[in-house]
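so my prof wants the structure for this chain in the tokens format not the other one, which i didnt know existed until like an hour ago. anyway here's the sequence
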Amino acid sequence: MNASYITPAVTIFHPDGSINLEETGRVYEHLIQGQVDGILLLGSIGEFFAPTLEQKKELIRFALRKINHRVPVLVGTTSMVFDEIIQLSRFAGEEGADGVIILPPYYFPLSEASIEEYYGRIAQLLPEQSIYLYNFPDRTGYDVTPQVTLHLAEKYANIKGYKDTQAGMDHTRELIKRIKPVRPDFEIYSGFDDNFAHNVLSGGDGCIAGLSNLAPEVTHGWAEALRREDLAAVQVGQQKIDLLMEIYQVGKPFVPYIKAAMEERGIIAHASSSFPFPQVMDGDREKIRRILEKAGF
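here's what i got, hopefully its the right format
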């Protein structure tokens, strides 16, 4: 069965807001050594909203040369400026990215017809690109529905997949039921780690989720267990991830706390995020240590 665990890699920043390429490069090496199934640059946990367009290009160029085709790479090219999406997506493709993933516009909700037109125009302007839809209703304020997705999948072969960041599996299961019979090659991923096994067992393709930054050896083992249909090992992986999911609840937004956990494990030396994300205080670090210990680290 398909079971891919793709990491939306964190981005490490200097205190002045510039990207710390050296530390971020350490993250990529850690992920590749941990045998992740792919890396997403500039996703939500990668703080895509913070860098300038030129900083994004610098990171994409650096990352793709650093990773050097050792694992597939997707690039988040979301912007509220439509021309920047097209420009950055083309740049990523020229640099060697395997695909791009794009949120719909946020702040004002769009009708289903407008969402379909929006992604349709992107697909037409990027005919050589593999495009992945990114659904995150808690952040955009509305849903890229299964019906809209089905229409897009039927019309555009270069729309290759969908990341569904929702707490439950109801919506993702509906996507799988509607789209897989029509486009078996269409990839459907969950956006939360604890939905990984449920997604795969329902006929999806896995997840693009943040805990693999912290514990790629665990997520790789979990994916391998599903691929060989080892139910006992799948259960062990589920229970360990369920414990690690508590890190998402230590503070808001969760991104600095994932980085702090990575620092506690010695994966990175500096857990800096973009402003105005908070610094992780000692009391929260102690909570993170307890969660890691409970999970066996």
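also thought this was worth mentioning. The beta strands are 4-8, 38-41, 73-76, 99-102, 131-135, 159-164, 187-190, 206-208.
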